[in-house]
Amino acid sequence: MAAIALTDLPGRPCPIAAALEVVGERWALLVVREITLGATRFTDIVRGTGAPRDRIAARLKTLEAEGIVMRVPRTPHRDEYALTDAGRALRPVLAALLAWGAQHAVASDEAVPPHDHDRTTEESR
After folding, report:
1. I want to staple 30 with a disulfide (CB 3.0 to 4.6 A). Which of 26, 49, 124, 125 is the partner?
2. What's the mean per-residue pLDDT of the chain?
3. What is the pLDDT of residues 29-69, one digit of tens each?
4. From CA 65, how far away is CA 87, in angstroms rounded?
């Protein structure tokens, strides 16, 4: 992962701004969520995020270049994706966003769909 010099960031330079340069694009953390939840194939990641295929392809390339996901060759012409140590370190971020979203972003009369989000806090997978 390429480190970002704080002096290169606009506005108030801080680690939050640097982190958002890496994973702040809308689909990035959803890709990490899907891989965390067990969607390791491209088509499953696309389905889970609801994003256009080209967006997920671009995001996976970026996340791979940043050292957050890695491509795992399986059968010929079929790769899967896995989280690196840096990607797994995002699990507490996902757990915090899940809790915050359930409390503040989801309509109060709407039930949060049951997902296996416990994996967002697992130490390893």
Report:
1. 49
2. 88
3. 999 999 999 999 999 999 999 999 999 999 999 999 999 99
4. 12
| Beta partners for residue 73, in sequence order | 79
Rounded Cα distance, 11 and 105, in Å: 27
CB 56 within 8 Å of CB 81: no
Determine the Cα–Cα distance for residues 34 and 45; give it in Å rounded to an integer: 6
SS3 per residue for 32-99: HHHHHCCCCEHHHHHHHHCCCHHHHHHHHHHHHHCCCEEEEECCCCCEEEEECHHHHCCHHHHHHHHH
Question: From CA 74, how far away is CA 7, in angstroms rounded?
Answer: 41
Other CB atoms within a 10 A radius of the CB of residue 46 amount to 20
User: What tokens appear for 6 in the block?
Assistant: 């704080």
- Structural domains in the chain? 13-102 (1.10.10.10)
DSSP 113: P
CA 97 to chain centroid, in Å, comes to: 11
Reading the block at residue 1, the tokens are: 């992962």
